[in-house]
Amino acid sequence: MSDIRGRVLIVAGSDSGGGAGIQGDIKTVTALGGYAATAVTALTAQNTEGVAEIQPVDAGFVARQMRLVLDDIGADCIKLGMLYSAETIAAVCDVIEEAGQGIPLVVDPVMAAKDGRPLLEDAALDMLKQRLIPLTTLFMPNIPEAEILTGMTLRDVDHMRHAASMLITLGARVVMLKGGHMGGDVLTDLLRWDGGEEVFEDQRLDRSDTHGTGCALASAVAVGLAQGMGIHAAVVRARNYLREAIRTAPDLGHGQGPLNHVHNIPYYTG
Question: pLDDT exceeding 90 applies to what percent of the chain?
């Protein structure tokens, strides 16, 4: 009998450097005991120094990948990352509305790479707001993404509260606003829902190997939900997992290096 628990369908772009996107998501879900299936939305040529080129996948083919997985393997949670275009967002929403009803949906609205390269076309922003956010169980933007979505400048936790509330009015059930881009020695994440909130604070780790942190955190939460955990418990475990993945990062490449996604898996020397 397999120990694998929790099926996660990941809909995201491929990262040739292996630190983020589909590759990082698969590592995260596997490390936390789940099963990862995928629908690839775009191919990227990138390494730790940046994204050199993006090749979008046809939106209809993205939808076909999703439908075939859902019809056969099924999913206990769907995690969305880089969607890139309005056409892809629309196609993904069609599948979720038709075949994903009742499945928790975690959305990491990937809008830009760490080097600033846009990963979401301008024309896709309205589609994300109008169609995707209302379908979302847990919406997980970082500070720059929340600023784009709300038109606000976020400088402190009160600003984060206001922005999260605005995103809830767009239809998200719960918002986790990630504070890693805000300055200071203390990193603050805000989990907010209609009628309540929880603030998470940690001492910031002095590491530059942070490529793929958003992908890993969202996938870690998604596999927790797939395994039957509540949102709070899934977030707590995911944050602890990510912190250790940053702390033990392998120091690869010449830019912002990848995490140690498999820090909790014993190294086999046999």
Answer: 85
Half-sphere exposure of 103 (CA within 13 A, CB side): 27
Sign of the Cα torsion 73, 77, 82, 83 reads positive
Please pick, among 178, 179, 224, 257, the residue that the annotation labels catalytic: 178
106 and 29 in contact (C-beta within 8 Å)?
A: no
* HSE (side-chain half, CA atoms, 13 Å) at 65: 20
Q: Any catalytic annotation for residue 212?
A: yes
Q: Give me the catalytic one of 17, 100, 179, 212.
A: 212
Distance (Å, whole) CA 204 – CA 190: 15
> Is 50 exceeded by the pLDDT of residue 1?
no
- In this prediction the pTM is 0.95
Catalytic residue among 100, 214, 224, 257: 214
| Average of per-residue pLDDT across 249-253 | 94
Topology (CATH) of 7-247:
UDP-N-acetylmuramoyl-L-alanine:D-glutamate ligase (3.40.1190)
Residue 30 is a catalytic residue: no
More confident residue, 110 or 92: 92
SS3 breakdown of the chain: % helix, strand, coil, rounded to 5?
Answer: 40, 25, 35
Whether 178 is catalytic is: yes
Q: Which two tokens stand for residue 173?
A: 């059930």
